[in-house]
Structure formats: structure tokens, C-alpha cells
Amino acid sequence: MFCPRCRKEIPDGSGFCLFCGKRLGASPPPQRRRRRRAKGSGSVYQLSGNRARPWVAAASSGAILGTYASSGEAVEALDAFNAGQLPADRSKYTLEQVWLSFRRSPAWNKLSDKGREGLLSAWPRLAPLAGRRALSVGVFEFQEILDTATVQTRYKARTAAELARMKPSERKRYEALAAQPPQPLGYDGKNRIKQLVSHLYNEMIRLQITKENLSGVLVLPPQHTRAKRNFTPEEKELLRRHDDDPTVKIILIYLGTGMRLNELLRLPKQAVDLERRILTGGSKTEAGRNRVVPILDSILPYVRYFYERAGTYLIEEQGRPLSDDTFRRRRFYPKLEELGIRYQDAAGRNALTPHRSRHTFVADSIQGGVAPEALTKIAGYSRYDVAVDKYADDLDLEYLRDEMKKKA
């Protein structure tokens, strides 16, 4: 054959002219070098042999995404996979980093003080998982924590030297407490853990770490309903006969205002106006916040007692407000037991709780003929039927009978 450019004879089947270098039509085009993919974005490569789908797309982790008929299809599949992946810094977030991010989020700011307090108390339960990557924690691991959670001990572990210095009576009490087997955490405590897990999943969704909140599959133990009751007239009279005691004064303020437990314990001194005889405060709902509660003559001496001793808050202990739990365990129940007021039912469950003072206030108000409009404002409800449905569950039978007679 002859070269079409220089017309010199060259061997048959040549791809180039040996004399002028012209590329001849029979030769294949030169192979272009494929652009190197960015580091960490995976790879595309071709398998050897005669295959229908020889092109492989592999993620940066080494996982094979599939085989394809052309390199273009493999590149498209790899790019689509990478587009759905997380930024590296977020995908490596630990569960503790998600928790800290949640506490800086708008969702945390929307919670009530009591809601935050409950989540803060539940977080230590997840301590075994805190350092793990959030994506690696399975929902079954949260379930295991729920199933095995026990009531935390109410005493400090003592060393042998500390035990030796104890009085015999103190040591006997300590040993009795230490010998008690662990008690399973109750429904309310486990429900707080579940709520925390739900918030953590929602925060991971906000951070684009995951797309689904799996907390809904967590199973809580059955909720045992307790037969609650209100304070009886005899018990209220007994409290008034012992109103020289500070804890009794607090209980009587609750019975005279209907305030929620944390509303009174966290009430600032500046929210008390003795001249106008009002308390300004509240929490939980929009209707309950910053409401005005009259100070009746029956409780004015008790409010004044704490006001004259108050620092920042109306009711304090060593310069700090009492926590709900401290008031229940160290003040409320011991005082009822001291006065002989039975607060447990036949099964040993607390039937007369601090919150029942609010129920008692609402029931007394309804039976006393307080106008619905006034009761909803004082107790902090948006509607009167809420007060009746939730809190008038222990109305006096004689009152109900008299009300029914009005229809006769």
C-alpha cells in the first residue's frame, strides 16, 4: 500500500506512514486518559474478559455499587451515590455530639424547664453509648437500656473507713439500704429515656445524619394506673393545726393557690406582691404563664413567712430553690407520715402526691361555686372543661348529689 500524503510504499495494514507519520484511516483513535476522580469519591474500573457489564462502580469504603455496560453508566451511579451521602464531619458525629448539638438547637429552647430537667436526668442512662458514632447505634441498643434500667440508689457508697466511723444506728440503716436488690425503673423514668431518644433522632434528622426517627419502635413497660385521691377536709384541718412547720406551710400554700409543684418552688421573690396580695407566675402552657394568683387570708401568713426569709426565690434551701424530687422525698412524704396522713394505697403506691394539692384546689373551687372564668385564669387553663376533665376527679358526693337536684 502507498501513503496518501507522501505516496511512498509502506507495509500493508500500517497505522502510520513510516516516512511522514500520517495516521491512516485503518488505525484506531488514540485512547484519552480518564480524568482521575477526587480522593474519597470512589472509583470506576473495568473487569477483564468478555462481559456484558464489565464496568464496576465502587464507593470510597470499598463497597461495590454494581456493574454497568459502560463507564459512563458506572460514573453516573457513583456520582448519584455520593450525592446522597453525608459530609464526613457529620457522619462521624458521636451520640454525645448529637446530644450537645440538640441542647444548642431551637427545639431545646422550646422545651419547658421541667422538660429540660427530665431529659438531663435521662441522659446519663445513655452514657455507655455516648462515645459511639450516632449512625452505628442500633435501636435495639436503646431498647436494651430501657429494659435493664434500674432505680438509682439514694445513698452514697461508703468505704470501710467511713463505715467504721459511723454510729451503729447509721451503719445499720446504711447496710439495710445497700442490701436492697435493684428495683426496675418505673414507667415515667423509662418514658423520659424514650423521649430523649426521640429528640436525639430528630436532631440527627436536622443534621442530615439520618432520615428516620426510629424511637417509635421502642417498647415501654405497661403503665400501671394508680388510684389517686385528694386531701380530705380532716387532713386539711390537721395540716392547719401544725402550720408552725415550714413544710406544712408550703403544702397549705399549694392547697390555697392550686399552683403546680415547680411553679411555687421556682417562684422568684420579686413575683410576690404582699401589698396587693398576689403571686405572678406559672409555667407549662401559654394560659398558665405569668398568671395572677390571689393570696387569700388563709395563706397570707405562710407566704409572708417565706417572703421575709427569701433571697432570690420565695422558697429556698441554702440559697437555692428546692428541686421537685427533693421536696417530694425529703419534705412532703416524711411530713405526711409524721402527721399520720396515709398517702399510699393498699399496694404501697403513692395515692396522695404533691400534685394532688392542685386537684384538691380545683375540686374545692368547683364545689365552692367559683366562677368558671375565674378558675380558668387562676389555675392557668385555656378552657374550663380542661379543669373539670383533669382535676375534678374526686368531687364530694354530696356536692354532686346537690347539683343533680337542680335538674329535678
Number of helices: 18
Number of strands: 8
Average of per-residue pLDDT values: 83
What shape does the CA trace take?
Answer: elongated
- Between the first and last Cα atoms, what is the distance in angstroms? 125 Å
Oligomerization state of this entry? single chain
The CATH class of the largest domain is Mainly Alpha
SSE succession? EEEHHHHHHHHHHHHEEEHEEHHHHH
Give me the CATH architecture of the largest domain, please. Answer: Orthogonal Bundle
Structure, explained:
The chain folds into four domains: 43-83, no CATH class; 87-149 and 184-224, Tyrosine recombinase, N-terminal domain (DNA polymerase, domain 1); 155-182, no CATH class; 233-405, Orthogonal Bundle (hpI Integrase, Chain A), CATH 1.10.443. The protein is mostly helical. It has helices spanning 71-83, 88-91, 95-103, 106-109, 113-122, 139-148, 160-165, 168-179, 187-206, 233-241, 246-257, 261-265, 300-307, 324-339, 356-367, 372-379, 384-391, 397-405, and strands spanning 43-46, 55-58, 64-68, 272-273, 278-281, 291-294, 316-317, 320-321. The model has no long low-confidence stretch (mean pLDDT 83). The relative contact order is 0.07. The longest helix is centred in the middle third of the chain and has 20 residues, at 187-206. The chain contains 18 helices and eight strands.
